[in-house]
Amino acid sequence: xxxxxxxxxxxxxxxxxxxxxxxxxxxxxxxxxxxxxxxxxxxxxxxxxxxxxxxxxxxxxxxxxxxxxxxxxxxxxxxxxxxxxxxxxxxxxxxxxxxxxxxxxxxxxxxxxxxxxxxxxxxxxxxxxxxxxxxxxxxxxxxxxxxxxxxxxxxxxxxxxxxxxxxxxxxxxxxxxxxxxxxxxxxxxxxxxxxxxxxxxxxxxxxxxxxxxxxxxxxxxxxxxxxxx
Length: 229
Description:
- The chain is mostly helical.
- 61% of the residues lie in helices and 0% in strands.
- It has two domains: 30-73; 79-223, Lysozyme (Orthogonal Bundle), CATH 1.10.530.
- Helix 3 (79-88) packs parallel to helix 6, helix 4 (93-104) packs across helix 9 (204-223) and helix 7 (168-177) packs across helix 8.
- The chain starts with 11 loop residues before the first helix and ends in a 6-residue tail after the last helix.
């Protein structure tokens, strides 16, 4: 023997461990479909939101345009006389302007079917009542004169304001249907028997008139006569 001692070979089962192979990860088809559907839903929601915002913007722009047109239709004439005689009689110029707009649309020669005349459509019995209180010698034909008509109409509005504590709805009703009718309506239809609200006015044409006066009053006050002092 030559002294060589061979190294014993290890058994394969003891020394060798076969590495495990991992199966490649397969992304589930169901998850892919769900994500795809979520993306579609999100896209549709975004489109709907953008469409709604665009419609809302268009609606606001249209509303603003219509409001500008409405303001432009509120004629402003005889402004100096309106301010002068309204303030002299303790009423707001914006309110007198609203009455003129609804009564005659600022036509100084306007005549109604019942004989009311001029800018503020003064009736003959109202004219006589105001003339007596002012102690003047004017004639009913003078109601076609813009300044005289505004002066008489504002005096009468001032009288109504004192009667109805400056309530714009009741004043408009009284100007349209007479103060005695309004007093009866307050007693019979006002919930508190003190203040007549627009929806409590029993006569449809007077209710419509008072609502239009009030709307015009708000526009004149905001855009043309903001400071009555």
